[in-house]
Amino acid sequence: MKLTFWGAAQQVTGSMYLLELDEDYRILIDCGSDLERSTNGQTPPIDQPTTGFFPFEASSINVVLLTHAHIDHSGNLPNLYREGYEGQILCTEPTYALTNILLQDAASLNSKRINELNGSKKKRVRDKQSQMLKDLFLEKQVRESMESVVPIQFGRKFRLTDSCSVTFIPAGHLLGAAHIVVDVFENGQKKSICFSGDIGRKNYPLLVDPATVPPVDYLVCESTYGNRLHVDQMSPEDALADVIKRTCIDIPGRLIIPSFSVGRTQSLLYTLNRLYTERGFQPIKVFSDSPMGLESTKVYQKNIRQLSKEAREFYEENETIFDFDNFEFLESTKASKAVSDYNEPCIIISSSGMVQGGRVEYHVAANIENPYCTILIIGYCAEGTLGWRLLNGQPTLTIKGEEKQVMANIERIDVFSGHGDRDDLLNFVRMQSPEQLKNVFLVHGETSSMEAFRGTLAEAGYTHVEIPAKGQSYEL
Q1: For residue 417, which of 237, 267, 291, 308 has the smallest C-alpha distance?
Q2: Is the same domain home to 9 and 142?
Q3: Which residues form the Beta-Casp domain (predicted)?
Q4: In this predicted structure, what is the pLDDT of residue 25?
Q5: Strand order of the sheet with strand 25-29?
Q6: What is the CA 58 to chain-centroid distance, rounded?
């Protein structure tokens, strides 16, 4: 069989891997959006097609396996169908529900963007309009994608062909996220390969710990945190309690937490509920300002049986996970803007996590010059985003066309990061024997992170480690 790396190769986003079996059967693992829009200076392989959205014929794919819902793993599924794919998508039930929410939101944004492009009178924009519109999927393609999903249970082998089966194994990281093991029988020999997806952390709020992966011959491993450890060693409850006490209790302040709507927001709400229920925190008003966050929370609520043992026990004792005194979801834009008139201490959780787009930009703009406000960054912020500029201490910022002084306090914690760090990644690889494992392929990371993690693996006895380039193929 042949494995080709068409995404997240020497970069973080755009996960997409093509596994071609000898029996002329093609499996696409993940189909993510390339959020970096970069080839890292690489020259595409000479045999890579230059036409069409994908570097392969979409109609030639037999099945898609989806590790989890995040857009950098799922975001191009509608385009795959638009280009001619007619097969099924296999994923867990929660992944299906969360992917539907994320893709519907993306389609809505695409529709607005198309209207803006069509209405533009600038010649430069009109000249580029045709190609830009070609890359934007709409709700119709999302529906077509989601109607083709086949939900797969964790831990049960699903036979794709007479000689190939797949198993989904809990990965942590996000509700429904999976490591995917593909077993293939070719020429009287069994070969197995595991695609890590994104590797979660132990004891992460709401989620189960990453499960053990059985012995495999080949391992495709993400390396987002391959060169670093998480800084904060406190529990999420202790870390958040410390920030709230200093920003909302010791002083009558306001705490703004930019947060991704799917996954991160639910972990925050659950942690706040535990603080109020188990530690006797006074019920400070909490606003969750994200319609997509509300829809995602409903998915978590519906899938309580797939949450961690701790979360299930909390639910049995309190009959709720996300609802508590003085908590309010803000559904309308009017309600969102009205929060500016709330004069008591409060916590505002709003998307997006990088403070780039979304309702959180309004809250930051309205409070950035307030010295009694704290903006708490709880995740990764890409270079150039508003969140990145806040973390880098810029004294003034231009937000929505207005220049503002940064008088609010800027803090950061990483206990809510859903990615395992270097030690977590190493423990994941160590499930495999260095003698049996024929190759490790590092993906989904910056080049420096991959190189550092390759060195870590070499010290642990794993000498066959590859860092594939985009478009590079391997015979397995």
Answers
A1: 267
A2: yes
A3: 265-390
A4: 97
A5: 149-151, 88-91, 63-65, 25-29, 16-21, 2-7, 473-475
A6: 24
DSSP H helical ranges for 30-183:
71-74, 77-82, 93-119, 123-134, 139-146
Pairing of strands 346-350, 254-258: parallel
Nearest to 243 by CA among 389, 323, 347, 366: 347
pLDDT in tens, 116-141: 777 765 655 555 555 666 678 999 99
Instruction: Assess whether 35 and 174 both reside in one domain.
Output: yes
432 pLDDT band, cuts 50/70/90, is: very high
CA distance 421 to 14: 20
Residue 389 has pLDDT above 70, yes or no: yes
* pLDDT the model gives residue 192: 98
Side-chain half-sphere of 124: how many Cα atoms within 13 Å? Answer: 0
Confidence of residue 381 (pLDDT cuts 50, 70, 90): confident
Note whether 253 and 371 are same-domain residues. yes
Residue 468 DSSP label: P
| Structure tokens belonging to residue 443 | 């993906």
Half-sphere exposure of residue 434, counting CA atoms within 13 Å on the CB side?
11
Burial 348-382 (b: 16+ CB within 10 A, else e): bbbbbbbbbebbbbbbbbbbbeeeebbbbbbbbbe
Contact 70, 102 (CB under 8 A): yes
Query: How many domains, in total, are found in the chain?
Result: 2
* Average pLDDT, rounded, for the chain: 91
Same domain? 402 vs 439: no
Strand 25-29 to 16-21 pairing: antiparallel
Confidence check: pLDDT of 259 > 90: yes
Q: Which domain holds residue 302?
A: 236-412
- Written as six digits, the tokens of 368 are 């950035």
Looking up tokens 């695609």, which residue turns up?
A: 195
pLDDT of residue 40: 39
Taking the C-alpha atoms of residue 291 and residue 329, their distance in angstroms, rounded to an integer, is 8
Above pLDDT 70, what percent of the chain?
93
